[in-house]
UniProtKB/TrEMBL annotation:
Matching InterPro entries: HAD-like_sf (IPR036412), HAD_sf (IPR023214), LarE (IPR005232), Ni-pincer_cofactor_biosynth (IPR052188), PGP-like_dom2 (IPR023198), Rossmann-like_a/b/a_fold (IPR014729)
Alphabetized CDD domains for the sequence: LarE-like (cd01990)
Top-level taxon in the UniProt lineage: Bacteria
Species assigned in the record: Nocardioides aquiterrae
Name under which the protein is recorded: Hydrolase
PANTHER family the record matches: EXSB FAMILY PROTEIN (PTHR43169), NAD_GMP SYNTHASE DOMAIN-CONTAINING PROTEIN (PTHR43169:SF2)
Length: 472
């Protein structure tokens, strides 16, 4: 089962925006109309409670409702232009967006005035709910699926806890750290500037815990293991959760797997105490694979899983697991993912919500040598759709990439692809290296031509993962 999408709730006043100057301006204007000299500094020292409660000590009971209406009417004129966004607010929202999350603002403020603030300050939120306070925020947070609520007041903590959400408090309002902790908040940050790094760490650990729990429940796995960063991390996580005796790795050997990938993959698995099975796969015998249409990966993955499933059964391993991650699942056209799912393979990294960046960070923390390994898709991914995949073409691409890497090895190269476009080779290198010096480019292209391409050019746009899909 895939993890639920991230939804983060934010309070508005003194969490996202510094309402004090605007609130003070409206109080002064209201006081002038009513002939009341409000103690503005005292009334704005700890903003958050409903307006009626703020006005109550200074007005007769039967005058509060009308005064509240007038306050809200005066608000757009006196409180929008002067209210700034708090430091880190935009970055906090963007941090949620990076994980594909939704942002919900839940505030005690009059909704129309709250929306004016959001619009004026270009705060990009998915849903605004106003006129809710304290534990009343819980219903909204539950309805919207928020698992984190960020606020500055003890009553924001009450709302988060009542909703079963994680309470994150910032010290930009009037409540002290001690007050917020006493109210039961789970996390206290100095301000929203600290939120992105906190969210990164929190979500990584949350998803690692989910992965561990999932693998433990599976009991045993055969990992479809290419030796890349994702499948290597999955293999290491499976060993941590289950022990090496309940885990095996399998690498399908065929013309599609570069020779250079094979020994490092075996060595890494051996370091974990895991056996590596190396069955031959025969995707080249599948017409759909050789034809190299947009669905080529479907036939490749179908062949792999159909070869690995009997091996898993023979060894008493309950599941075949692939290294599909959460980014892959939303990357658009991925027929290989569909083929694996149709044949019963599981995708624990995807189901835990782990992104490529999180996998690399976790691999770095665990000391895995694959944490910064460049992406290395199969050789067939280098051949333009519609150009027949053959052993000759794959061998030519492999030789060309080896020559190119040898030429650029001292230039800080990370990613490289030699794309077989049928009538020529297109060489993609890291954009940061472009443009190449003329003599270096000449040597690079000479090596690619010696590998068997009559014509070769350097793509001025640089390396782009999945660039062949641009041609669909």
């Amino acid at each position: 089962m895939q993890s639920a999408p991230l939804v983060v709730g934010f309070d508005l006043d003194m969490t996202l925006i510094d309402t004090v100057p605007g609130f003070a301006g409206v109080l002064r204007a209201l006081g002038a109309e009513l002939g009341v000299e409000f103690p503005v500094e005292q009334m704005t020292a700890k903003l958050g409670p409903p307006l009626d409660q703020v006005l109550e000590p200074y007005l007769e009971a039967d005058a509060i409702a009308a005064a509240g209406d007038r306050f809200r009417a005066l608000y757009p004129q006196h409180a929008i232009a002067d209210v700034p966004v708090l430091a880190g607010a935009h970055e906090a929202i963007e941090a949620v967006r990076r994980y594909g999350g939704r942002v919900v603002v839940v505030t005690g403020k009059y909704p129309a005035n709250a929306q004016l603030h959001l619009d004026h300050l270009a705060l990009d939120v998915d849903h605004l709910e106003g006129w809710v306070w304290g534990v009343g925020k819980a219903d909204v947070l539950r309805r919207e699926g928020a698992t984190i609520y960020v606020g500055d007041h003890v009553h924001d903590v009450e709302g988060a806890l009542a909703a079963g959400a994680l309470s994150v408090s910032v010290l930009t309002g009037g409540c002290t750290r001690e007050e917020l902790v006493a109210a039961g908040t789970h996390v206290v940050l100095d301000g929203l500037g600290d939120f992105p790094s906190w969210l990164d760490g929190y979500l990584l650990q949350l998803r690692l815990d989910a992965l561990d729990a999932d693998l433990r429940e599976r009991g045993s796995v055969l990992v479809a293991y290419s030796g890349g960063a994702d499948s290597a991390f999955l293999l290491a996580a499976a060993v941590r959760a289950l022990g090496p005796e309940h885990v095996a790795a399998a690498t399908g050997y065929s013309h599609s797997l570069p020779q250079v990938e094979r020994d490092p993959a075996r060595e890494f698995a051996a370091s974990l105490g895991v056996d590596v099975l190396t069955p031959q796969t025969h995707e080249m015998e599948r017409e759909g694979y050789r034809a190299n249409g947009a669905d080529r990966c479907y036939f490749c993955k179908a062949e792999l899983i159909e070869v690995l499933a009997p091996l898993a059964a023979e060894r008493g391993l309950a599941h075949v697991a692939t290294g599909t991650n959460a980014d892959d699942a939303v990357a658009g056209f991925r027929p290989g993912i569909r083929a694996a799912a149709e044949r019963g393979a599981i995708a624990p990294l995807r189901d835990a919500g782990l992104t490529k960046a999180q996998i690399r960070e976790a691999s770095r923390r665990w000391g895995l040598p694959t944490w910064d390994k460049p992406a290395a898709a199969c050789l067939s991914s280098r051949v333009a759709y519609g150009v027949e995949v053959t052993p000759f073409r794959l061998g030519r691409v492999e030789r060309a990439e080896a020559a190119a890497r040898a030429t650029l090895g001292g230039a800080g190269l990370v990613d490289l692809r030699v794309r077989d476009l049928g009538d020529r080779a297109s060489v993609e290198v890291d954009a940061a290296l472009l443009p190449l010096a003329a003599d270096l480019e000449a040597r690079l292209l000479a090596g690619v031509r010696e590998a068997g391409f009559e014509v070769a050019v350097v793509d001025p746009r640089g390396f782009r993962s999945g660039s062949m899909n641009e041609r669909l």
